[in-house]
Specification:
Elements lengths: L3 E4 L4 H12 L4 E5 L13 E5 L5 H7 L5 E4 L9 H21 L4 E5 L23 H19 L4 E6 L2 E2 L6 H10 L4 E4 L9 E2 H13 L3 H4 L2 E4 L7 H12 L5 E4 L1 H13 L7 H4 L11 H7 L7 H15 L5 E2 L7 E2 L4 H7 L1
Parallel strand pairs: 1-2, 1-4, 2-3, 4-5, 5-6, 6-10, 7-9, 8-11, 12-13
Helix pairs in contact: 1-6, 3-4, 8-12
Amino acid sequence: MKKILITGGAGFFGLHMTRHLRALGHPVVLLDIAPYETAEYPPDGVDFLAGDVRVPADMERALDGVSHVIHAAAALPLWSRDDIFSTNVEGTRVVLERAAAAGVERTAFVSSTAVYGVPKVHPLYEYYPRVGVGDYGESKILAETVCEEFRRRGQPVGVIRPKTFIGPYRLGVFQILFDWIEGGHRIPLVGSGRNRYQLLDVEDLCDAFYRMITAADADAACDVYNAGAVEYGRVLDDVGALCAHAGTGSRPLPMPAAPVIGALTVLEALHLSPLYKWIYGTAHTDSFVSTDKLRARLGWSPRYSNAAALIRSYDWYLANRDAVPSGSGVTHRVAWDQGILKIFKKLL
């Protein structure tokens, strides 16, 4: 069995990827600067290491005996600019440098469809221009450039660009949605809701990365891929399906995009709302990618539609809401403080 290192192992994806790998019998090493909720992980076959991908010595320690790496550690959009670039770009360089020195057989990098910016043409294909929007999008482009540099040197590095992925333990902005639906409130949509916004279930993402690190075709494993649900509809329909499943009387409420975005921009600037511009500024536009390449080259076949992924996440939230941790709104594994949105919830 392959011994696999996951950087960012304390995060939402790291937890699910660990479970996926252990179910297949692989020993796993985790590295993260954040604390682990060890009770949520498999009871054996997992080494929990505290460390920073930006620190070569930490990476060397984590790579001991490791044959494959899934590099998921990342600073998220609400982190400081310095942390975003040092973690996402320089951290990726340190990971690949130390992996090369350790003789790692293959590395897979978790990128993002944020590298495409806000294009007007859909679906998005892997060869489309990369146009970073904000520090996070720009940092992911630069991190991919680092991957390309090492690939040219002969190091096996693959990249997957996932859409927003959800599933059990995913909180953040989705916890706000689930809380409103549970309470039977109307769900304000930015715009008409007739746009298509593709999501991805985390289990399907784990399968994609497993296929990348184990593929017999080395060339296919070292390519760049989009990942997203194959079945997805309009936002109005997918949110409506979740509301119907919940049965609380909640329903989507389309609202004019311009005034909603304007109001949320002001509230964000005043630190009264946890929503950041990338969320509300693109919620009314189409956003979906082609997954043809991933399905053709790595044989990937996602199980969950947008609606099914939302429902699965909501059901987990209902079963675990009393134990949901709260936080500052900078990670996906805590419930965000809704701020002034609580007042609007009472009106809807």
